[in-house]
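Working notes for the structural subgroup meeting. M.R. asked for a predicted model of this chain before we commit to crystallization trials. I am recording the input and output together here so anyone reviewing the notebook later can reproduce the run.

Input as submitted:
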Amino acid sequence: MGKEVAINMEVFESNVSSLKASAEALLFSQHKSYTLEKTNIAPFTKDLEQMIKAIELLDRYKTLLTQDIQTLKEVGETMRDTDEQLGKK
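Returned structure, recorded in token form:
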């Protein structure tokens, strides 16, 4: 009649942990302080400005990804709890 809905928490937690480790490995902020000390040629300075903006966007992406991972973890825990409650009925 109905199909069983369940979450394999070991696999889920392993995948979330792997995703979290990958997100933590993203390192961008050390390059925000780059400057060009020996030139003021416009194409080079504009490229540097664009690179800094790109790094800031990547940092923002990392922040959003970290928040999404936390949300995903909470959703998995809620699914597990709901599954346990439904199993007791």
